[in-house]
Automatic annotation (TrEMBL):
Family of this protein: Belongs to the ABC transporter superfamily.
Protein's UniProt keywords contain Transport: yes
GO MF entry, a single one: ATP binding
Gene3D superfamilies, A to Z: P-loop containing nucleotide triphosphate hydrolases (3.40.50.300)
The organism's place on the tree of life at top rank: Bacteria
Protein name: DUF4162 domain-containing protein
Keyword Transport listed: yes
InterPro entries: AAA+_ATPase, ABC_transporter-like_ATP-bd, ABC_transporter-like_CS, ABC_transporter_ATP-binding, DrrA1/2-like_C, P-loop_NTPase
Keywords: ATP-binding, Nodulation, Nucleotide-binding, Transport
Residue ranges annotated for the ABC transporter domain, each copy included: 5-232
Length: 310
């Protein structure tokens, strides 16, 4: 299946600053794609180019099989990190206003908005002014008007910012539901836990360059550095003594009843079956597992490596 979005060799310069330097990404339809990077890395510039707000100095953006044009913006929904609602307008009036701008009739917009407001538990705020809403409620309103017209591509920039865990989970489930219904989503965030939960692939940008691209699970496996965990009962000191020649690092968790968990980093030449054999001799082994690197560790390690190489 063709990619819904192709960014090919895109560069963008501002006075004395290169915001993007030959960046390329490919996004398959019906996926949640993580766009990651430190502050000032170039993510916002790339998002603005994809939204046709600004143009690249060089390179091409392909949308749904053709070169991106201004007409394609109607098929893109964008929730920026800096929210933009008119504080003196009533909530319902403003939501209908934005929906009409995106091509919905007043009747269709009202019907769909009422359904979304019920789902998000904010129906009682329909006739309130925006300035009366909490930050979280205002974010719910802007999320709704972003997705209401069901665009092919949705771009969410830090969508969970300011939400408590319950509402963040509500929004997360809605994002996954939109994906399951066919929407493609670009998810820009600093929350690496959310990336692990909802993104299939990521691109990490730093100083305007694409420094890492790949499938989330594959990247976590690649960066795991041969780490594994052993759950056991017995003497942890004896276990670590037996495994000392096979590992350079040990991390012993707090025991849970009789069971204990040891995480270790295997030396390059060591096979997991050798660790299992040694552990069985020293303890009663209950479970063995590979330890996947976290996206947070991958983010920090990759950014530091690229900065050290500059």
């Amino acid at each position: 299946m063709d990619n819904i979005l192709e960014v090919i060799g895109v560069s963008k310069h501002y006075t004395g600053h290169k915001a993007l330097d030959d960046v390329s990404i490919s996004i398959a339809p019906g996926t949640v794609y993580g766009l990651l990077g430190p502050n000032g890395a170039g993510k916002t510039t790339l998002i603005r180019i994809i939204n046709h707000i600004t143009a690249p100095d060089s390179g091409t953006v392909m949308f749904d099989g053709h070169t991106l044009t201004a007409d394609d913006v109607s098929q893109i929904g964008y929730l920026p990190e800096e929210r933009g609602l008119y504080k003196k307008m009533k909530v319902g009036e403003q939501a209908i206003f934005f929906a009409r701008l995106k091509g919905l009739s007043k009747a269709d917009a009202t019907t769909q908005l009422k359904r979304w407001f019920d789902k998000f538990g904010i129906s009682d705020w329909w006739d309130k002014k925006i300035e009366e809403l909490s930050k979280g409620m205002a974010q719910k309103v802007q999320f709704i008007v972003t997705v209401l017209h069901r665009p092919k591509l949705l771009i969410f920039d830090e969508p969970f910012s300011g939400f408590d865990p319950i509402n963040a989970n509500l929004l997360k489930q809605e994002i996954l539901q939109l994906r399951d219904e066919g929407s493609t989503i670009i998810f820009s965030t600093h929350n690496m836990g959310s990336v692990e939960e909802i993104c299939s692939d990521i691109t990490l940008i730093n100083k305007g360059k694409n420094i890492l691209t790949g499938n989330v699970d594959e990247l976590r496996h690649r960066f795991s550095d041969g780490r594994c965990s052993l759950t056991f009962t017995g003497d942890p000191r004896l276990l670590m003594e037996r495994l000392q020649p096979m590992s350079s690092e040990f991390f012993l968790d707090e025991p849970k009843g009789a069971e204990q968990r040891l995480e270790l980093k295997l030396a390059p030449e060591v096979k997991l079956r050798d660790v299992i054999a040694a552990a069985n001799e020293a303890t009663d082994l209950i479970e063995v597992g590979r330890v996947m690197a976290s996206m947070n560790d991958i983010f920090i390690k990759t950014v530091k490596q690229t900065e050290n190489n500059d």
